[in-house]
Amino acid sequence: MQTSSDRHEYPAHWEADVVLRDGGTARVRPITVDDAERLVSFYEQVSDESKYYRFFAPYPRLSAKDVHRFTHHDFVDRVGLAATIGGEFIATVRYDRIGTGGTAASAPADEAEVAFLVQDAHQGRGVASALLEHIAAVARERGIRRFAAEVLPANNKMIKVFMDAGYTQKRSFEDGVVRLEFGLEPTDRSLAVQYAREHRAEARSVQRLLQPGSVAVVGTGRTPGGVGRSILGNIRDAGYPGRLYAVNSAFPEEQKELDGVPACRSVRDIEGHVDLAVVTVPAAHVPGVVTECGEHGVQGLVVISAGYADSGPEGRERQRALVRQARSYGMRIIGPNAFGIINTSPDVRLNASLAPEMPRPGRIGLFAQSGAIGIALLSRLHRRGGGVTGHTGVSTFVSSGNRADVSGNDVLQYWYDDPETDVALMYLESIGNPRKFTRLARRTAAAKPLVVVQGARHGGVAPQGHAVRATRLPHATVSALLRQAGVIRVDTITDLVDAGLLLARQPLPAGPRVAILGNSESLGLLTYDACLSEDLRPQPPLDLTTAASADDFHAALSRALADDTCDAVVVTAIPTVGEGAAGDSALAEALRSAAAAVPTKPVLVVHVELGGLAEALSAAASTAPQAGPGPAGEAVPAAPAQQPPAVRAPEGAHLIPAYPAAERAVRALGEAVAYAQWRREAAEPGKVPEYEDIDEKGAAQQIAGYLARGQGLTLGAQETCELLGRYGVHVHRALPAPSPDDAVAAARTLGYPVALKATAPHLRHRADLGGVRLDLADEEQLRRAYAELTELFGKPAELRPVVQGMAPRGVDTVVRAVIDPAAGAVLSFGLAGAATQLLGDMAHRLIPVTDRDATSLIRSIRTAPLLFGWRGSAPVDAAALEELLLRVSRLVDDHPEVVAVTLEPVVVAPHGLSVLGASVRLAPPPARDDLGPRTLPAY
Hints:
By secondary structure, the chain is an alpha/beta fold. The protein is 34% helix and 22% strand. A hairpin with a 3-residue loop joins strand 34 (811-820) and strand 35 (824-831).
């Protein structure tokens, strides 16, 4: 049992599970007085060379005094952390706070000396780097700002750990020792290093699960049927080339084989290493299996067994215990309650799932949190299903079930590097870490399409078994943020497959201009209308008439593809009477050959009852999406400068997807057009501008002073104006008017004409209710308006009236910023008024907002035409509005204590704008785990 030490209680929140460089896991925790025997045992397994590097002299064993020193910590000035696997130490790190002379000290001294020791067997796994991240976070929490480390020049590995960490460093050499000093505040470089390490480790951990050299199926039944026996057969029948074992404790001792596969009673009985165990035993027997696997060195588990968080509170605790137990042995888990995993690579051919057939090899990666949806996706991509025509292969498939450990984030890390995957399709019922998912999605989408459909989005609660962070953002806002990150967000499984089919087979369109041709005028018109609904720019349909031959289609498609005013072509086709399969094949070949001549433009087919044509258009392999030509014909880069390993070259850009309905084809094309535009913009990201008039330091002091009064508070009007003013956001002055005479005095101060507004909560920003009187030119009009308001709505104390100088006429808008504990800081914009609230017409961007983000934000709402001269009105000052958005973004980004800002209304005129109302809420900022050390979700 962990116990407290000298001065402070045991800091349980420092405990964490981490993924190491090779994909295994370790647990990081504070060292306590109970760890004396573990420490001695650990030290005995360290080589003499490593001991020499740690203590600068031969140091064969620890004395009793050493053991006491290294296990007794106050968790403030002296802290030790250990990385453990199976409960045993594999590495340690400690810091001791020091003063200016290098002697032991206490706060307020803000420097500490740090030292590491890693078992030789675990060196090279990234253990020291992970420990450095965690000990640095602990030190920052305890008020330490700098680390110092003395290292022998020959200890190159440890010097590299410090040098590669990304902190600002100072290096010196004295008395034969290298002295390193570095600050502990995260820098852009240290965060980049941390994210890169996280990516490599998590990708490798999934790779170990999807590319095992040996597999044991635990729980294979002695008689045909059953989950375990089925999975064993699926793995065998798929042609898995690695070592495969059947495990069941009920096997007779003399049984050595099952269905041609070596049979064992226990994982411990297997001779040789086991990389992956597929667990199918009842939940009550899983802990024993995990122990066997951990002690045998199994690297990962796929737990098919149900009865965990999907079965209620008792099962949820069983699931937590399962994850803790597996991680204690360095293993990662897919599941529990998983459908399984598939890898179609010719070198792997693994079907460790309940799918009876191995999908065709291809370029699409699938991730599903639901087994049922996973089955549907595999079925639709495996054969003609759901109306989607054409065979499209799968690279890898992961069904995470309860998603207790391995999540969609981990699989994204793997797909980003995977040269076998060109398109990623994900069905998500919850997003456990939206901030991280958005970061990973943005990076992945810059290299390969990521299509996501989110289930349970209107239920308000996560499905049973899913541990997710609470978010206050509505689903529409989360969807908008995902789209900002380049995610192709669709609503249905049908849309998911439709988009995936197009992106896997065709190049990305260079723009929204669409040519339509075919042998049915009606079908062409339907396609034209569908294009308009998807904000595409269709050309008038070309009707080839029902007498059109395959040669006519070839010639028309060739002309359309050669047209510089066309970015994509939709071909519509209805059956030709009497031609049958021969006609279908001829037409398919005509379309394929024409498309192959111009491989930079996508071609889609809308067919009606042309099964033969659809089959003929389908080919065995899929293609990677390619960037089309730019507006002026220049090549557009496929992704930003930082690219993942090269994706396999397309094997034929002439593979044409066919859809049974114009709406489905055009909807998929619309998503491809939007994604291609995002890719082009992502290649040249915007900038966060600097403003010389921003008083960041003054704002910080002001915020600190306000928060000293309490944990959370909404600022008063004067305080709000002062804080916003430090960031160049000036609020139109308003004076309280508790009586008619006060209103007249306020108007004299401000100058006529004025506005009289009720600011009571039920009337604020509700001009439609009559709580606002504008353009009051003199005292008489003001007193009459005051009397009308009080007669209609009640006493002044209830109305809280204010007088405000009139602002120039313009369009009323609203700007909001909020810090969500799950998604992070979000900036929102829309027009003010009840209609906008009713329609939910708000646009959203993650903070910090760039100049490009601000430009797109004000143009993203459906009512944006009102800002740009709709029906002959004067366009508003868009530049001033964009600058306001950028200044609010800077305020929230610079000061996370500003947890909510509302500017309403903001009247944007043809020249300038006026902020007529503002509110600011302050609170201690929510924890940012993306700025802390790498950890797996806690259980």
